[in-house]
Structure formats: C-alpha cells, structure tokens
Amino acid sequence: MSGAIEVRLPALPECWDSCGACRDGELLVSDILVNPGDRLRCDEPMISLETDKTNLDIPAPCSGVVSALHLEIGDTVTEGVLILTLQPD
Question: pLDDT digit string (tens) for 40-66?
C-alpha cells in the first residue's frame, strides 16, 4: 500500500479543555461515516464523536480512498489514535 496515509485523531480544540466535557481527553465514537473502498473528499466527515455535552465530526485531511478502518462505534478514543488508512488521490 505505497503512499498510504495513517489518519489519526487530531488535537482537540482548546475550548474543549476549558468546558470540562473532554478534560480527560477521551471521546466516544458515535458514528463511522465511511467504509473501506469509499472515496473521501478533503474535509468530508469521516467519524462522529460525542461527549455528554457535544458532538463533533472529524473531517478527512485529504482526498483518497479508505483502505482500512481502525475504529468501531462505541470505542473510546484519545488524541492521536489511528482512525483509518487512506490511499490518497
């Protein structure tokens, strides 16, 4: 899989630290919006995360084809966790 990109959960917005909803740095995967073989456009939502106060869609960092998912609905994630592998266009 030459040129594949490991897409990881980015740093959480600073405001999340101050509101307390994500202070522990862990979020629940509430939805996975793509499947292996799907073509993504840059900034298209890949997964949805939730806390007790908010929901957040995580966008694709670039265009490409999803070659593997590394999460399941219900997983608890932290910054830097591997979300998916993407074969860029």
Answer: 999 999 999 997 777 889 999 999 999
**17 sits in which H/E element:** helix 14-19
Q: Kindly report the pTM of this predicted structure.
A: 0.82
Q: What are the tokens at 86? A: 């993407």
Are 9 and 32 in contact by the 8 Å Cβ rule? The answer is no
**CB neighbour list of residue 79: distance below 8 Å, 6 or more residues apart:** 9, 10, 11, 12, 25
Q: Calculate the alpha carbon distances from 67 to 24, 59, 60, 83 in Å.
A: 30, 16, 13, 11
